[in-house]
Amino acid sequence: MAYAPQQWRNGIEGGTPTSAKRFNHIETGIADVDDAISDLEAAVTYLSDTKAPQDRKITASTGLTGGGNLTADRTIAADFGTSSGTVCEGNDSRLADQRTPNDRSVSHTKLTTDLRGDVESALRSDDARILRIMEPADYDALGANTDPNTIYLVYED
User: Fold this and answer.
1) Residue whose C-alpha is closest to residue 140's, from 106, 116, 104
2) 150-154 and 76-78 strand pairing
3) Cα(first)–Cα(last) distance of the chain, in Å?
4) What is the pLDDT of residues 55-65, one digit of tens each?
5) Tens-digit pLDDT profile for residues 111-139
6) Which residues contact 66 (CB under 8 A, 6 or more apart)?
Protein backbone atom coordinates (compact mmCIF):
# COMPACT_ATOMS: atom_id res chain seq x y z
CA MET A 1 0.00 0.00 0.00
CA ALA A 2 1.39 3.40 -0.94
CA TYR A 3 1.57 5.91 1.87
CA ALA A 4 -0.43 9.12 1.26
CA PRO A 5 0.97 11.98 3.35
CA GLN A 6 -1.45 14.30 5.13
CA GLN A 7 -1.12 18.03 5.59
CA TRP A 8 -0.74 19.00 9.23
CA ARG A 9 -1.65 22.48 10.41
CA ASN A 10 -0.97 24.24 13.69
CA GLY A 11 -3.60 26.06 15.63
CA ILE A 12 -6.74 25.56 17.60
CA GLU A 13 -9.08 26.63 14.86
CA GLY A 14 -8.42 24.97 11.49
CA GLY A 15 -5.59 22.94 12.92
CA THR A 16 -5.18 19.26 12.18
CA PRO A 17 -7.23 17.27 14.63
CA THR A 18 -5.50 14.54 16.53
CA SER A 19 -7.41 11.30 16.48
CA ALA A 20 -6.88 7.57 16.50
CA LYS A 21 -7.56 7.55 12.76
CA ARG A 22 -4.71 10.03 12.15
CA PHE A 23 -2.28 8.10 14.35
CA ASN A 24 -3.23 4.78 12.73
CA HIS A 25 -2.50 6.35 9.35
CA ILE A 26 1.01 7.24 10.56
CA GLU A 27 1.53 3.76 12.05
CA THR A 28 0.47 2.11 8.79
CA GLY A 29 2.98 4.24 6.87
CA ILE A 30 5.77 3.32 9.30
CA ALA A 31 4.88 -0.40 9.04
CA ASP A 32 4.96 -0.22 5.21
CA VAL A 33 8.42 1.40 5.29
CA ASP A 34 9.65 -1.24 7.76
CA ASP A 35 8.39 -4.04 5.46
CA ALA A 36 10.10 -2.45 2.46
CA ILE A 37 13.39 -2.17 4.38
CA SER A 38 13.14 -5.85 5.41
CA ASP A 39 12.59 -6.85 1.77
CA LEU A 40 15.63 -4.82 0.70
CA GLU A 41 17.77 -6.33 3.46
CA ALA A 42 16.77 -9.84 2.31
CA ALA A 43 17.62 -8.98 -1.31
CA VAL A 44 21.01 -7.51 -0.35
CA THR A 45 21.80 -10.55 1.82
CA TYR A 46 20.86 -12.91 -1.03
CA LEU A 47 23.01 -11.02 -3.54
CA SER A 48 25.91 -10.84 -1.11
CA ASP A 49 25.70 -14.55 -0.28
CA THR A 50 25.45 -15.69 -3.91
CA LYS A 51 28.07 -13.48 -5.58
CA ALA A 52 31.30 -15.00 -6.82
CA PRO A 53 34.10 -14.55 -4.26
CA GLN A 54 37.00 -12.31 -5.29
CA ASP A 55 39.46 -15.17 -4.96
CA ARG A 56 37.53 -17.14 -7.64
CA LYS A 57 39.79 -17.55 -10.66
CA ILE A 58 39.13 -17.48 -14.38
CA THR A 59 41.67 -19.84 -15.92
CA ALA A 60 42.69 -19.74 -19.58
CA SER A 61 42.95 -23.24 -21.03
CA THR A 62 44.85 -24.51 -24.08
CA GLY A 63 44.94 -21.94 -26.87
CA LEU A 64 43.96 -19.05 -24.58
CA THR A 65 45.82 -16.48 -22.51
CA GLY A 66 44.73 -14.22 -19.67
CA GLY A 67 42.47 -14.77 -16.71
CA GLY A 68 43.10 -14.27 -13.01
CA ASN A 69 41.05 -13.65 -9.88
CA LEU A 70 38.00 -11.37 -9.69
CA THR A 71 39.65 -8.47 -7.86
CA ALA A 72 39.88 -6.69 -11.25
CA ASP A 73 38.47 -6.87 -14.78
CA ARG A 74 39.97 -9.82 -16.66
CA THR A 75 40.48 -10.59 -20.35
CA ILE A 76 40.68 -13.94 -22.11
CA ALA A 77 42.34 -13.88 -25.54
CA ALA A 78 43.24 -16.39 -28.24
CA ASP A 79 46.90 -17.46 -28.13
CA PHE A 80 47.88 -17.39 -31.81
CA GLY A 81 50.96 -19.28 -32.90
CA THR A 82 52.33 -22.06 -35.04
CA SER A 83 52.97 -24.72 -32.41
CA SER A 84 50.84 -27.24 -30.56
CA GLY A 85 48.49 -25.67 -28.02
CA THR A 86 48.05 -22.44 -29.99
CA VAL A 87 45.27 -21.19 -32.25
CA CYS A 88 45.80 -21.29 -36.06
CA GLU A 89 45.61 -18.11 -38.10
CA GLY A 90 45.12 -17.99 -41.85
CA ASN A 91 48.86 -17.85 -42.54
CA ASP A 92 49.69 -20.80 -40.28
CA SER A 93 51.84 -23.45 -41.97
CA ARG A 94 49.72 -26.12 -40.28
CA LEU A 95 46.93 -25.16 -42.68
CA ALA A 96 49.02 -25.59 -45.84
CA ASP A 97 50.89 -28.89 -45.53
CA GLN A 98 50.90 -31.48 -48.32
CA ARG A 99 48.95 -34.31 -46.68
CA THR A 100 46.99 -36.68 -48.89
CA PRO A 101 43.28 -36.39 -48.08
CA ASN A 102 42.00 -39.62 -46.51
CA ASP A 103 38.71 -39.41 -48.38
CA ARG A 104 40.46 -38.97 -51.77
CA SER A 105 38.86 -35.55 -52.11
CA VAL A 106 41.06 -33.00 -53.78
CA SER A 107 40.54 -29.61 -55.36
CA HIS A 108 40.46 -29.17 -59.12
CA THR A 109 43.51 -26.91 -58.85
CA LYS A 110 45.57 -29.59 -57.14
CA LEU A 111 44.24 -32.25 -59.50
CA THR A 112 45.23 -30.32 -62.60
CA THR A 113 48.61 -29.36 -61.18
CA ASP A 114 49.82 -32.63 -59.64
CA LEU A 115 47.92 -35.35 -61.46
CA ARG A 116 48.23 -33.95 -64.97
CA GLY A 117 52.01 -33.92 -64.70
CA ASP A 118 52.11 -37.46 -63.30
CA VAL A 119 49.79 -38.83 -66.00
CA GLU A 120 51.61 -37.06 -68.84
CA SER A 121 54.95 -38.30 -67.55
CA ALA A 122 53.69 -41.87 -67.24
CA LEU A 123 52.13 -41.86 -70.70
CA ARG A 124 55.35 -40.54 -72.29
CA SER A 125 57.45 -43.33 -70.83
CA ASP A 126 58.64 -46.19 -73.00
CA ASP A 127 56.52 -48.64 -71.02
CA ALA A 128 53.10 -49.45 -72.40
CA ARG A 129 50.62 -47.98 -69.96
CA ILE A 130 46.83 -48.05 -69.79
CA LEU A 131 44.78 -45.18 -68.35
CA ARG A 132 41.57 -46.26 -66.58
CA ILE A 133 39.11 -43.67 -65.29
CA MET A 134 36.71 -44.95 -62.63
CA GLU A 135 34.66 -44.09 -59.57
CA PRO A 136 35.95 -44.84 -56.05
CA ALA A 137 33.68 -47.87 -55.53
CA ASP A 138 34.97 -49.51 -58.71
CA TYR A 139 38.58 -48.82 -57.75
CA ASP A 140 38.01 -50.15 -54.22
CA ALA A 141 36.51 -53.32 -55.70
CA LEU A 142 39.83 -54.06 -57.40
CA GLY A 143 41.46 -54.46 -53.99
CA ALA A 144 44.96 -55.90 -54.42
CA ASN A 145 44.25 -56.83 -58.04
CA THR A 146 45.51 -53.58 -59.57
CA ASP A 147 47.68 -53.80 -62.67
CA PRO A 148 51.13 -52.19 -62.28
CA ASN A 149 50.98 -51.20 -65.98
CA THR A 150 47.71 -49.32 -65.51
CA ILE A 151 47.25 -45.75 -64.35
CA TYR A 152 44.01 -45.43 -62.37
CA LEU A 153 42.26 -42.05 -62.34
CA VAL A 154 39.63 -42.17 -59.58
CA TYR A 155 37.00 -39.40 -59.50
CA GLU A 156 33.78 -38.51 -57.74
CA ASP A 157 30.82 -36.68 -59.26
Assistant:
1) 104
2) unpaired
3) 76
4) 889 998 888 99
5) 555 666 666 666 666 666 677 888 888 88
6) 58, 60, 74, 75, 76, 77
